[in-house]
Amino acid sequence: MTPVAMAGRNRVVAGMSRVAPVYTPAGLRGRGYGAAAATAVTRSALDAGAGTVVLFADLANPTSNGVYLRIGYRAAGERAVIAFT
Questions:
Q1: Contact by Cβ (8 Å): 71, 42
Q2: The CATH number of the domain covering residues in 6-70
Q3: In CA terms, which of 11, 16, 43, 70 is 20 to 30 Å from 49?
Q4: This prediction's pTM
């Protein structure tokens, strides 16, 4: 058996869990594997007692953002990381 996608999550802390990472190899994308993996770990977090499940998505990736919206996530805000040297 060959893995086709992966997703993980952290443990539930204060009623919240974060989904990360979600990854599908380039040659296997577009077949629903990443969506299935993200859905499974989201369900796992909810089953473990999370009242809130979050993930950070790259705004420059409309494909993954569409997947997350389809499986039930909604946009809650944006953030920027700025490093000063």
A1: yes
A2: 3.40.630.30
A3: 70
A4: 0.89
